[in-house]
Fold these 2 entries.
Entry 1:
Amino acid sequence: QGQVAESGGGLVQPGGSLRLSCAASEFTLELYSIGWFRQVPGKEREGISCLSSPDGSTYYADSVKGRFTVSRDKAKNTVYLQMSSLVPEDTAVYYCAVDTQPLQTVRGAHCYQFFERRGQGTLVTVSS
């Protein structure tokens, strides 16, 4: 089925920006819908964005809408999560989750729940 791996996390000051990557190996990422979610230890997972493969529609949770943007780089077989205007509440481990069925339409920001193909996550810390 192939694998995905997140990268790009790190320490950033409030108000700063960061770009996370979700890179795929052994399959063509653009054919599959993708979800991003995050988790703080001891708290529930939060779905933050989905990218629907058939038409490229994107969906965002209210908590990140207007600040986060998902995009694809087909040549690099990678999806990005561009995060801006970061606040301490964005501190979490961020994961991408990828559908195993190609060209399935998703809606809403919580599609990750249905996707088993996930990476190990990347830690984002927003702090001064």
Entry 2:
Amino acid sequence: QLQLVESGGGVVQPGGSLRLSCTASGFAFNYYGIFWFRQVPGKEREGVSCISASGTSAYYGDSVKGRFTISRDDAKTTVYLQLNSLKPEDTGVYYCAADMDYYCANDATPDASDFGSWGQGTQVTVSS
């Protein structure tokens, strides 16, 4: 059974950094693209970043491009999202999702409605 656990969130000041982790179990991790979304109350879950199964393709939303970096360690069945130069508007609950058939293209925003399995999320709060 596909299981995803997000961790690494916290409270940071603007300009600070965090590293989020998405640790997977119960499926052939190296065949799956991994997708990060974030959500704030009252808004839909927004696609932030993703990485393809091979690790050769990655996507970043316009609002995070140049500040966030995604990477994967298949041996640890974990995907990392490095968040640098954080802004208050980065505040939200960050979720990861996995899919074997949904390709992470570097120019296409992932749609949260296409994913059915979610972890519990990790809260990121950027505030002075």
